Amino acid sequence: MRSLSRVRLGGVTALAMAIATFPFTVYSVLGPDLIEEFGISRAQLGILATATGLVGALSSPYWGKVTDRVGSLASTRAVLGFGGVTLLGIAFAPSYLLLVAAAVLTGIANGWCNPATNSLIVDTLPPGTRGVVTGVKQSGVALGTFLGGALLPAFTLLWGWRGAAAFFVVMPMLGLLGLTRTQRSDHHEIDGERGVGKVPVSVIWVAIYGAFSGLATSAMFVFLPLFAEEDQLWSAQAAGSLIAVIGALGVVARVIWPSISERRLGHGPTLRILSVISSVSALLLALAALDVVGSWVLIPSAVLLAAGSIAWNAVGMLAVMDFSPRHLVGKGTGVVLLGFLAGYSLGSPIMGFSVDQLGSYAAGWLGATLLLVIASVIAGRIPSGSTLADA
Question: Quick check: 378 and 208 in contact, CB under 8 A?
Answer without folding.
Answer: yes
